[in-house]
Write a structure and sequence with these properties.
It holds the Pfam family Lip_A_acyltrans. The protein is α/β, with parallel strands linked by helices. The protein is built from eleven helices and nine strands.
């Protein structure tokens, strides 16, 4: 176990590369700075062995016959997408100012406007795919500010940047865990909207198929949607190539049934999108690692 001083120093050391990238590109415009961080993360995924091995472990599970050259290209593209997304999350106010970059589709937006007018809440579910924060940006611009649920970071520097970015995207910023769940329920009952990324493993989840393999998956979102009679709506922000243009899709809500069936429908939906555009998903989540062992 790390001592307190060493842990503090280690957090600083881990933050230096990100701080350097964010500081070095300050003279550039917003899109240029986002692109710079994207190129940096893409370079890391392409050339740093530990990053390549972690990526290969996950991608070969789904694509066992993928050639090394193809994996290298895919890991670089994924890194570029995630680097841009990371910058945009950290600087959410500037990101939300670019409403002209968001291309909206799907029947869900009209449903959400109706829920807002009736004073009712909604649960929006997505994954670490494309630029998920574009969904909250569109909603906030239209007077439907949406709470964001995120996992608290152990590194104080990352936590500070992430919490600030989530709050800029829409308040309240809710952390995972018992306290965050209580705050989420209170927000929903008051007619608020909540956005949740459902593709992270959770210790209290159930093993359910995701991309063809069982993975720990939380049923909490579906349970809350049924209990409080609010829509469970899949939403996605898909980046157009390596650009700031994002297709924001508000799908029809998942039909109410039981938590497992509803959650599996979302898993299947996200899986299909990942298989179509694998460079848009963050493959480093260790999605299939069983935390109960």
């Amino acid at each position: 176990m790390l001592s307190r001083p060493f842990k503090y120093i280690w957090q600083h050391l881990r933050y230096i590369p990100l701080w350097t990238a964010l500081t070095y590109s300050k003279w550039r415009g917003f899109d240029g700075r986002a692109r710079s961080l994207g190129y940096l993360v893409g370079w890391v995924m392409r050339w740093i062995p530990i990053a390549r091995r972690r990526f290969d472990r996950e991608i070969l599970r789904i694509y066992p016959d993928m050639a090394r050259a193809e994996r290298l290209v895919l890991s670089r593209k994924m890194g570029q997408n995630m680097g841009r997304t990371l910058f945009e999350v950290f600087h959410n106010t500037g990101f939300q100012a670019g409403q002209e970059n968001f291309h909206i589709s799907g029947p869900g937006l009209e449903i959400l406007e109706k829920m807002r007018d009736e004073g009712k809440g909604a649960i929006l579910v997505s994954g670490h795919f494309g630029q998920w924060e574009a969904v909250r940006a569109v909603l906030k611009h239209r007077g439907m500010e949406t709470a964001g649920v995120y996992r608290r970071q152990s590194n104080r520097h990352y936590q500070r940047l992430l919490e600030r970015g989530i709050e800029q995207g829409g308040k309240p910023a809710l952390t995972t865990g018992p306290n965050g769940t209580k705050a989420m329920i209170k927000h929903l009952r008051a007619g608020g909207f909540v956005a949740i990324l459902l593709d992270e493993k959770t210790v209290d989840g159930e093993m359910m198929p995701f991309l063809g393999f069982d993975a720990l998956t939380s049923l909490a979102a579906a349970r809350l949607a049924l209990k409080y009679d609010v829509p469970l709506m899949p939403v996605f922000g898909t980046r157009r190539d390596d650009s700031s243009d994002i297709d924001v899709e508000f799908e029809a809500p998942i039909a109410p049934s039981d938590p497992r069936t509803m959650t599996q429908m979302f898993n299947d939906n996200l899986s299909a999108r990942i298989l179509e555009k694998p460079d848009q998903w963050y493959w480093l989540l260790r999605r299939w690692k069983d935390m109960r062992r």
